[in-house]
């Protein structure tokens, strides 16, 4: 058996890739090109050798600042392109351009664009002022003609009540200190015309009324044209107003209020001939300005279109250059030898590719000195790297969300690929709902080439990334739905006739007395005659509960078996003898035996009470089982299994800490003897040496850790087995909820001979199925399957305390939003 296991071919996903710690000594003249080629390859993770330095103390900080400034300019161009509403055009590939030349180009384009924006803003402001002046002239003329007579009469009344009343010693109005108007203006009535935003008109009028104590006449009219705001570039609705008043003090206050509300005031002559002359002049200037604005916008759009055609290429180049200089800042710069020293991790299979890329960098940079690339010993544990594809990556992400695997540790994702969608389907089993999920998954898979190039939302991106998980979940749901014989909770005679029939032709006692079995069992899945029968719930509860226990015991045994492969791979015989063996004995002595009883009861059709058997296995192991005996020799077997379970607990607890202490003492005595016979030079460790220093062995800490581990496993065996009963609970809940929607919504509505009621019932059933059963229930079953893998399965063997391999790779660069 051992030889057979050793001859099995290695699995790429079972163990992480073998890593090696490497050192690079790169001449300064070829450093940039070498790092660029390594970024294109994406198989080397650099270690920061300047972690104690701040970003501003590093060698290439000025180059990083230049790249950040160019990135800022490119983002500015992107904002201007979006504001201009230019559509993405075909990217024009530019010939090789150096970073310095690109920096000069970007500075020129930015200066030109800022200047064009400034001129355009000034022209737009002048255009808006002339347009507002024209609108005010058109509207205010009508007010002056229609209100001239009313204004004069109101002015006369004002003079009679305010200025001609000699009985008042102190007047509360604002006109008491005003100078009388000139004789040329017989009425003393003045006006101010202007334009204001429509949203401010009511507050503006109220403020004018309070400031003038009601001694004014306010006329308004909506502007016929909307005006573009030069700052926000949005269309703004405005209102023309004319305020008639009397007195210089009132004029001052009204002008101050206009300034406070952002109203623009324009002079309007009283004579019609002057009004027409000014209107004509304003219209001609507007025409000239409009032509100038169009020409400026056209020129600006051409410049932006040119930038947009090269934007992707320039942005990628700046990102890459910044990433290269950030990586160079992680290397040590040796001033005396004119070289850079770097360290990092790479997979062993990638060493020839890295050496080829470094040789190519040396040749392309015309360097007379080659790049030194060699392996070293390392103190820290290597990173974890799994080669995944679009199918296996979502399962690896599910495992990594719990914790990244320790280096070369058994990877749960290999088994999660099948067990996760299957346990989901056990809870979600309905082949009608499974078909709906499968259609959604097939749509995502069919459009993956298009969706992979689009920017999706967070939820849609997660759904698209897990499209193959969704596909397997749907396929297993269809399979479990056929086992349960549920299609939107409705059973069908798919695989033949039922094995049961009514006692008579009327079938009146089918739901009370029950049915009669008259032929062989239904060939596949649950017999459809169980639906609606008197013992339907009891039968399905018993079936799904026992299935849950069987699946749980098999799943936990798989986890313990993987712990054996971990111990064997790392040559840890202590874990094999004092963890794997007692754990297998304890779990299977109790719950493995329970699974055996379930299978025997199904095969024999016995009426034994398994609850009674398991309880009295502990309370009275020597008593006669009576009618609960399922097979010969059951009672002595139970006694033996109980003794094995009791022996397994101290077996897990005591031997391993004492053996570790003994091995440590022997190793420590040998090391002391070697140190006494060695010279002082031998004791000095080299800087790159990975020789581990002596660490004090704390027996109490090791013993407490082992005791916690043993107690956790013993108690967890019970709680974890009970936790798998969620498979039964969620399956039952999903089935009953689907039955409620079918019987209480769809069938109830279909019982009415009314088309509207039937359509309403069908709509409610469709929405309930889509949003509750296909979305909420899917999420619920997904989370419960996730918990079963993270807690019940992975805690048997998985440490999850590693760290990911994150190589320097141009393909993984993301746009810096800040």
From TrEMBL:
It is a multi-pass membrane protein. Belongs to the V-ATPase 116 kDa subunit family. It comes from the Eukaryota. GO terms for biological process: proton transmembrane transport. The chain crosses the membrane at residues 422-445, 466-484, 547-565, 585-602, 637-654, 755-776. Essential component of the vacuolar proton pump (V-ATPase), a multimeric enzyme that catalyzes the translocation of protons across the membranes. Required for assembly and activity of the V-ATPase. Residues 99-126 form a coiled coil. The lineage of its organism: Eukaryota, Viridiplantae, Streptophyta, Embryophyta, Tracheophyta. This is V-type proton ATPase subunit a. Keywords: Coiled coil, Hydrogen ion transport, Ion transport, Membrane, Transmembrane, Transmembrane helix, Transport. It is found in: Membrane. One of its GO terms (cellular component) is membrane.
